[in-house]
Amino acid sequence: ADFDAKKKRKVAEIYQALNSDPIDVAALRRMAISKGGLLTDEIRCKVWPKLLSVNTDDLPPLPGKELREDSKDYQQVLLDVRRSLRRFPPGMPDDQREVLQEELIDIILHVLKRNPQLHYYQGYHDIVVTFLLVVGDRLATALVEKLSTHHLRDFMDPTMDNTKQILNYLMPIIDQVNPEVHDFMQSAEVGTIFGLSWLITWFGHVLSDFRHVVRLYDFFLACHPLMPIYFAAVIVLHREQEVLDCECDMASVHHLLSQIPQDLPYESLISKAGDVFLQFPPSKLTKEAAQAAQAERTAASTFKDFELASVQQRPDTVLRQRFRERLRGEERLRGEERTKSILTKPRTNRFVKLAVMGLTVALGAAALAVVKSALEWAPKFELQIFP
């Protein structure tokens, strides 16, 4: 009864944010991050477009079949989609699944044709099929296009250089939270390749329960684009004892970590990932992850976080827009001073700090702080709304 009451209350809060004028996107982000996420696919159909700043009143027309004749990627996409049987609900009739697979091919080719700077990669279809199953083909096309030109852009470069750069954040995150696990993995020379499929499919390829996949998508869509690598890190940290009990060699540790457990405590890991992100944001890890010059070339490092657009869409903010315009310069200066102060403080015991933060993100208390973190930790970001 208590669970049902909380669920009803959260649904009411989500619809209140959706019905605000203007829509309270910041509140929707908090709902997407906090315990349970967006709860139903019906709600996701309404909220995911808001999180990605997609106008549902101006959706692109459905792609035509001529795409297949002109696309250099068609054969590879076709092979990958044919191999994607397990990504569809068990028990789905073959004819229904085959229709969805055709739609999946068309969505991918449509996005690639409209954005020739993007390059298809194996695993991309695992992300696209998630959107297709939740929101249908036409809306999925618009959402995937926006996602591909922002959150996923580094994965769609001509080379894997920027993808490797993002993977390079994994070990510094682990080191900050648990140096013992980090040192063991370094001694085993396991590297980070075990997490590649996690990262580039947003875990869609490796998790068998669709409920867990969409819950993670709620979380990732509401956060900084590097959040998936933080979630990957907390999975490794959650398996601390298994890792330390493993033979300290590359093959053994890689085999263990590449077999992702299906019974993970997703809500507590989401909370932990948010807490770790707040405690050790990307700006503090860049030097360890790679040379700053290379990091600056990744979309994740230059990403104008969608929350920055959301700040301007909150009803109270819109009403006070003129007042904020006058104060913006002053607030930015204060933010820079605050950030400088935080980043120069001596590091206290990491375990004590994380314990104190506890389950703040899952409970919603720090959810908005996570989404605002791009502004908080990198004041060079400009406040702007995506076109």
Automatic annotation (TrEMBL):
<protein>
    <recommendedName>
        <fullName>TBC1 domain family member 20</fullName>
    </recommendedName>
</protein>
<dbReference type="Pfam" id="PF00566">
    <property type="entry name" value="RabGAP-TBC"/>
</dbReference>
<dbReference type="GO" id="GO:0005789">
    <property type="term" value="C:endoplasmic reticulum membrane"/>
</dbReference>
<dbReference type="InterPro" id="IPR000195">
    <property type="entry name" value="Rab-GAP-TBC_dom"/>
</dbReference>
<feature type="domain" description="Rab-GAP TBC">
    <location>
        <begin position="38"/>
        <end position="224"/>
    </location>
</feature>
<dbReference type="InterPro" id="IPR035969">
    <property type="entry name" value="Rab-GAP_TBC_sf"/>
</dbReference>
<keyword id="KW-1133">Transmembrane helix</keyword>
<dbReference type="GO" id="GO:0016050">
    <property type="term" value="P:vesicle organization"/>
</dbReference>
<dbReference type="GO" id="GO:0006888">
    <property type="term" value="P:endoplasmic reticulum to Golgi vesicle-mediated transport"/>
</dbReference>
<dbReference type="InterPro" id="IPR045913">
    <property type="entry name" value="TBC20/Gyp8-like"/>
</dbReference>
<keyword id="KW-0472">Membrane</keyword>
<keyword id="KW-0812">Transmembrane</keyword>
<dbReference type="GO" id="GO:0007030">
    <property type="term" value="P:Golgi organization"/>
</dbReference>
<dbReference type="GO" id="GO:0005096">
    <property type="term" value="F:GTPase activator activity"/>
</dbReference>
<keyword id="KW-0343">GTPase activation</keyword>
<feature type="transmembrane region" description="Helical">
    <location>
        <begin position="351"/>
        <end position="371"/>
    </location>
</feature>
